[in-house]
Amino acid sequence: MKKSLKKNPTNIIITGVGGQGNVMASRVLAGMLVNAGFIVTIGETFGMSQRGGSVMSHLRVSSSSVLSPQIPQGRGDIVIALEPVEALRVLTKYGNPDVAVLTNSRMVYPMGVITGEFTYPTIEEVKSMFEKISAKNWIIDATSVAVELGNPVLSNIVMIGALAGTSLLPIDRRAFEKEIAKTIPAGKHQINLKAFDAGVKML
Predict the structure, then answer these.
(1) Disulfide: which of 19, 106, 165, 197 matches 51 by Cβ 3.0-4.6 Å?
(2) Domain-located, residue 1
(3) C-beta separation of 35 from 178 below 8 A
(4) Is 203 helix (H, G, I), strand (E, B) or coil?
(5) Does the structure show a pLDDT above 80 at 157?
(6) The domain spanning residue 29 has which CATH number?
(7) Torsions phi, psi of 80, nearest 5?
(8) Beta strand 78-81 pairing with 54-62
(9) Is a pLDDT exceeding 60 seen at residue 51?
(10) pTM over cut 0.70
(11) Contact predicate 37/44, CB 8 Å
(12) pLDDT over threshold 70, residue 2
């Protein structure tokens, strides 16, 4: 029996900063959804993909239609952020009262904040903003889990596991295993499965 979407189409944005594995996360998630029988259109990274710059990928998931790769303003359904302030940046343009937000709590400070030119909100302030502008939100420390596993970039896979744990999308461990078997070298399967499982447990 084919799985179904809670909303058809479902508009997903994955955001972060360059170097966090944003593009890989979007491709793994897209592959999982395609394997589940959905049509997925990816809007490749919008923004500065170099290390430290804002990056954003659009995934539009449908049971039946090929959609434009760019999500219309105000029409995001799920925002997955590898950095919390990037989630706020995305929500100002694509958010709406029904949006669900899943974010990593670890902040990546831009140079202006490091030099004292700008200030950054605290994670408590970010959480307070999420409460006002989203229907559901989860904040997890994916980076600490990834560091324990030996590679901070694995936080992107921890986030995919956490997304599976939210039940917002019809994805699970089996779908993840199937996808990484095609896209990730065999020697890295076990560590990626550990990262995925850790993310599921965090929810």
Answers:
(1) 19
(2) no
(3) yes
(4) coil
(5) yes
(6) 3.40.920.10
(7) -110, 115
(8) unpaired
(9) no
(10) yes
(11) no
(12) no
Residue 175 lies in a domain: yes
The answer to whether residue 4 sits within a structural domain is no
Of 120, 115, 119, 118, give the one whose Cα is nearest residue 83: 120
Helix/strand/coil for 60: strand
Residue-level pLDDT at 129: 96
Residue with tokens 């850790």: 198
Domain extent, residue 33, equals 10-141+168-183
Q: Which two tokens stand for residue 144?
A: 């600490």
In a domain, 197, yes or no: no
Q: What is the C-alpha to C-alpha distance for residues 128 and 91, in angstroms, rounded to an integer?
A: 14
Our count of domains for the chain comes to 1
Mean pLDDT of 112-140: 91
In the three-class reduction of DSSP (H, G, I as helix; E, B as strand; rest coil), residue 15 is classed as: strand
Residue 53: per-residue pLDDT: 76
Q: Is the pLDDT confidence value at 70 over 70? A: yes
Cα separations (Å) of 75 from 7, 13, 41, 57, 148? 12, 10, 15, 14, 36
Look at strands 78-81 and 10-17 and give their pairing: parallel
Structure tokens at 127: 């959480």
Please report which confidence band the pLDDT of residue 109 belongs to, taking 50, 70 and 90 as the band edges.
Answer: confident
Residue 49 has pLDDT above 60, yes or no: no
